[in-house]
Write a structure and sequence with these properties.
This protein has about 230 residues and is mostly helical. It has eight helices and no strands. The protein is flat, with a radius of gyration of 20 Å.
């Protein structure tokens, strides 16, 4: 009897409406034999598009529309790779690793683009990148130590992209309709400074919550083992 196909132990909760946008593409990828790893690498390409858009937005403000669109494309590829892996029977532990590494590269690329845009403080943007990485790795710690993978908290990956989207469009709207400069002189905070600050605060809350839930799960697991011991 053949061994059952590998099933991931933890899957990120994704809205059915967003998942539905990829179902036709999943069928095409399976029919053409597109490997899920290829889709994972495409998420880095999308993140590079977002980073380039933010980086050049001071010279071409309309790129603040394109940058968030690339961020959502990155999220779409992040979802698609797992769907293709399951539909094609190619899900594996190796695939789980290769699903995570491009995500972390993407986080750094996007916030590095923001940091070097001239529209906010590089210090604040890089701290947003650092805490985005820390948030993701704490979420993985639970799975690594034998309890649940944590996706909880205010500033999970999708909400980081939504926050950046809102900040970019607010900055662009203020520039277009109220002639507010994208880069505020004299050391005052810009819209994207505040956006990165919100990401940082949300990541701190998310890290704290995830760590607390993982530690609580470990305590429950230890108590259950103790109760079951003869």
């Amino acid at each position: 009897m053949p061994e059952p196909a590998y099933q991931p132990t933890s899957r990120r909760p994704i809205a059915d409406l967003f998942r539905a946008t990829a179902r036709g593409t999943v069928r095409v990828c399976v029919r053409l034999g597109v490997h899920p790893d290829t889709v994972s690498y495409l998420s880095i390409v999308a993140a590079a598009g977002a980073a380039t858009s933010f980086w050049q937005a001071a010279n071409h403000p309309w790129l603040l529309i394109l940058g968030p669109a690339f961020c959502y494309l990155r999220l779409w590829f992040n979802m698609l790779d797992g769907m293709v892996a399951l539909a094609s029977g190619k899900a594996s532990l190796r695939g789980e690793i290769l699903n995570e590494v491009p995500d972390r590269v993407s986080d750094v690329l996007i916030f590095a683009g923001v940091a070097h845009s001239g529209l906010c403080s590089p210090f604040v943007a890089y701290w947003a990148a650092i805490l985005a990485l820390f948030t993701a790795y704490i979420g993985m710690f639970g799975q690594a130590v034998g309890v649940q993978r944590e996706f909880s908290g205010w500033m999970s990956k999708p909400w980081r992209m939504v926050t950046l989207h809102v900040g970019a469009w607010v900055a662009l709207g203020m520039f277009w309709f109220w002639d507010t400069p994208l880069a505020t002189p004299h050391g005052r905070l810009t819209v994207l400074d505040w956006t990165c600050a919100v990401v940082i605060a949300g990541c701190v809350q998310t890290c704290t919550l995830r760590l607390a839930r993982i530690l609580h799960a470990l305590d429950r697991k230890a108590a259950s083992r103790k109760a079951a011991a003869p």
